[in-house]
């Protein structure tokens, strides 16, 4: 299943993240893709808001992983610099650690991801416009796509 949502301003990216965040459950994985500055971290801020995270959410580019406490733990990963040869395969322990994983640049660790996740591509259409493409095969993620695309 795939749906596309047109975004006109930054606040709409946060709102979409919030709406998706409200539907997330333990051990769900959000795999984010998009160019630099597309809005991956901004989207994650919306998820953090939904999970009632009180700490500042910013890009974990240099630390790879930041853990934020909320209703559920938020495992925010930025795997931009990872590859099969980087030796950072221990990240997969967080996929089933009773929290929510949001992975920026997820395409870099497809070899680590389980079969089931919500894939979100953020396509920069210029200035503040974005096309958000949501896709999933698993029923629990399809249900999220259906809920937020109404």
Q: What does this protein structure show overall?
A:
The chain has 150 residues and is of the alpha/beta class. The protein has a single domain, classed as 3-Layer(aba) Sandwich (Rossmann fold), CATH 3.40.50. It is 22% helix and 27% strand. The protein contains three helices and seven strands. α1 crosses α2. The longest helix has 12 residues, at 10-21. The chain is globular, with a radius of gyration of 14 Å. The chain starts with a strand and ends with a helix. 38% of the residues are buried.
SSE arrangement:
Layout: E1 2-7, H1 10-21, E2 28-34, H2 40-50, E3 65-68, E4 74-78, E5 100-104, E6 118-124, E7 130-135, H3 139-148
Parallel strand pairs: 2-5, 2-6, 4-5
Antiparallel strand pairs: 1-7, 3-4, 6-7
Helix pairs in contact: 1-2
Give the helix proportion (percent range).
10-25%
Q: What is the general shape? A: globular
Radius of gyration: 14 Å
Based on DSSP secondary structure assignment, what is the total number of beta strands? 7
Helical run tally = 3
Distance separating the two termini: 14 Å
Number of domains: 1
**Uncertain ranges:** none
Strand order of the largest sheet: 1-7-6-2-5-4-3
Specify the biggest β-sheet. 7 strands, mixed
CATH level 4 superfamily: P-loop containing nucleotide triphosphate hydrolases
Structural class: alpha/beta
């Amino acid at each position: 299943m795939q749906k596309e949502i047109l975004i006109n301003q930054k606040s709409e990216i946060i709102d979409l993240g919030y709406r998706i965040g409200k539907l997330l459950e333990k051990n769900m994985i959000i795999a984010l893709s998009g160019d630099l500055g597309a809005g991956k971290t901004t989207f994650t801020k919306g998820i953090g808001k939904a999970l009632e995270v009180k700490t500042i959410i910013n890009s974990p580019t240099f630390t790879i992983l930041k853990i934020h406490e909320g209703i559920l733990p938020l495992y925010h990963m930025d795997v931009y610099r990872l590859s099969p040869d980087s030796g950072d395969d221990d990240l997969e322990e967080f996929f089933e650690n009773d929290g929510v994983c949001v992975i920026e640049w997820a395409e870099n660790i497809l070899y680590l991801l389980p079969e089931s996740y919500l894939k979100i591509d953020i396509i920069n259409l210029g200035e503040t416009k974005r096309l958000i493409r949501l896709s999933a095969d698993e029923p629990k993620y399809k249900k999220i796509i259906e809920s937020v695309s109404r």
